[in-house]
């Protein structure tokens, strides 16, 4: 009866230590073989199920089943259990363990799928946050930089040339209005379910001349050369090219210093659209825009399967060169 109590008590820990519990139950059962007192075969069934259901090491499960089958056969040899009963017990023992094992595997798969789902959701949220951050930075930083330059120019010439100051302040007003328009458009894209989203298309290659014109109005000496690029590219390619040029020109305004000349060139090389922006400024001593701007440009290129190289030129100034697949990175 003591061994029966030990085997019964051990089952309490079957969820936490299934291997140990099965070992205790089988040992107690083996010690009672042939005694005619306690039969712990039922306890062994519970312990085998717990081993399959809660055991995490597969080889311990196979070993436990093998030992249980040996004890079961010994019970048939030492007792009056017919061999047909022993054979049936072998099938039942294995089936009970297999049921527990399959339930454990199903639970583990469910946990793994749930973890993968959460990870995928986190990744989607992170990518969306990065996309929003890129768009906000490109819209706000560019317009605010122009406003700052124009406001500084207005302050400089306010007393000597009031008309020039007024024109500069008008440019500030226009830049602010355009920034608000782009922000409204961006919010409309982010909230399409409102039914009132702005349907104006995102900027592309056709908008580069207007961008360059605005930069010239801000006092930047910039040339635009579009060679062999016929347009009609995927929208994501044109948007990325536009934003990269926009960010580079914004950095020239902020860092290159007065009198800097800038060249923007777009051409095709094999399967890629190549965007190059070079300036001969000397106002910056480190990589301009090495924060969100450069990071955003590199992310835009990489998301399309392209690349971005940016750094100082040997003869002064900075250069940026982006390669964007013409097909937008389509498989």
Give a description of the structure:
With 331 residues, the chain is an alpha+beta fold. Among the domains are: 2-81, no CATH class; 205-331, Heat Shock Protein 90 (2-Layer Sandwich). The chain has helices at 2-10, 18-31, 41-54, 58-78, 83-157, 162-190, 208-217, 235-256, 292-303, and strands at residues 221-227, 261-269, 272-279, 307-312, 318-325. Strands 1-2-3-5-4 form a 5-stranded mixed sheet, with helices on one face. The mean pLDDT is 77.
Order of neighbouring strands in the sheet with most strands: 1-2-3-5-4
Give the termini separation: 71 Å
CATH superfamily of the domain at 205-331: Histidine kinase-like ATPase, C-terminal domain
CATH 2nd-level architecture of the domain at 205-331: 2-Layer Sandwich
CATH topology of the domain at 205-331, by name, is Heat Shock Protein 90
**What is the typical, i.e. mean, pLDDT?**
77
Query: What does the main sheet amount to?
Result: 5 strands, mixed
Any chance you could write out the topology, listing elements then pairs?
Elements: H1 2-10, H2 18-31, H3 41-54, H4 58-78, H5 83-157, H6 162-190, H7 208-217, E1 221-227, H8 235-256, E2 261-269, E3 272-279, H9 292-303, E4 307-312, E5 318-325
Parallel strand pairs: 1-2
Antiparallel strand pairs: 2-3, 3-5, 4-5
Helix pairs in contact: 1-2, 2-3, 2-4, 3-4, 3-5, 4-5, 5-6, 5-8, 5-9, 8-9
Quick structural overview:
Helices cover 62% and strands 11% of the residues.
Please tag this protein with its features.
331 residues; alpha+beta; Heat Shock Protein 90; 9 helices; 5 strands; 11% strand
